[in-house]
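Morning run. Coffee first, then this:
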Amino acid sequence: MLITNRLLMICRVFSDVDQPERANLPPRGWNSYDSFCWTINETEFLQNAQLVAQRLIPHGYEYVVVDYLWYRRNVKGASTNSLGFDVIDEWGRMVPDPNRWPSSQGGKGFTEVALKIHGMGLKFGIHVMRGISFQAFDANTPILDTTKGVAYVEGGRQWHAKDIGMEEQVCSWMNEGFMAINITLGAGRAFLRSLYQQYSEWGVDFVKHDCVFGEDLDLGEITYVSDLLKELERPILYSISPGTSVTPHMAKNVSGLVNMYRITGDDWDLWEDVAAHFNLSRDFAEANMIGAEGLLGKSWPDLDMLPLGWLSQADSNLGPHRKSNLTLDEQKTQMTLWSIAKSPIMFGGDMRALDHATFSLITNPTVLEINHFSSHNKEFPYVTSVKSIANSDMALGVVDFDSGRVKSWVATGRTGEIYVAFFNLNANRTTISMEISDLAKAFPGKDWTNSSCGCEEVWSRRYLGVVKSIAIPVQRHGTALFLLNCTTY
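And here it is:
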């Protein structure tokens, strides 16, 4: 027996070595929430997935994710926080609504959808909630023991939903939906095991686990789910949310257990939402959290989906019906920050209505190169700014000392190039400038004083020549992104 156990341990070690590192780059894909809220159906999902496969796979997009409430019947009275409209199986587990997801009939779950997604060359993801649903709790469904295929029995009795549900710990933003479960109980752990084994059997490659982080932090459930995902033969990327009130200190307790984690609340197409990400992104970069060790690979602070293109809205029962409210300059700012902060890139717009401007934005090759392959990413607080005269490259002589309204980031490229991003959070056009010599403060060890750099502005594709300083007017809420190829002496 001892020899057998040692052989099993050796086989497990070699199996782990053979597995590719999970999330070795910031994950990239499409998520249904921004464009469909909760109402997406199988036809709409597959239509979007097919377009992701055709248009975005060449740009590194690989996941398509069904966001929340895929189990809710889309009938009168149902909403994002309604009770009694969900489809559950005999074990209290959520299963796809067969009217919205007809291929799930006959107990197939998402198996057929996942097969089609994999056939497109993509990976399939789903959104799940914490714990157990109120609907299963009220029905007091039995707990499945997956090791035996029957109801879970311990201490001489069968266990049910009301034995493991914790009514005092409900999801703060869906108080009619889900509650925590007691994972100190064998039955609580058995319930979670039955969920994630089912997801694996369906062919799921990505799980977005919601209402377990931020103000709803449930470290116990995150830890146990992480352990379950290590045991499953199928590799599943593990994402957690939401990120309301998250700090680097809080994140350090979970980053090694997951592959991506939200650091803000929901990001919608409002300038205030975009602007709120700057200081948080800086803090996580300073804490060395970008690309830190994660679940069987790396983990990434997640700035949320990109609400660009054709959208729905929060808490809506409608699908896509409006354009993004962000201006083109604001959209470029968002895409630039997400990329240089190395956030996962999850596009949220309806692929069926993807316009040329949005497509160009989310597929810019230099921006995506920065997102996947840059390093030493950090805020660069060594720029100055002055308020610009409208439609002129000339600046007024009054310096804008509100440093919080002008931001800059830097990073290094994999072939020695330097990336510099200027961000104008002001409500007015602002000229932002820097000296090349100040790069020594971010990247010491080179003689930046005697350096000269070939400089290209990425979004405009404008070559600025060989420079020792940069000064450029940036539109309100806009950005300028520079690719520098420098010679140092």
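The chain is about 25% helix and 25% strand. Good start to the day.
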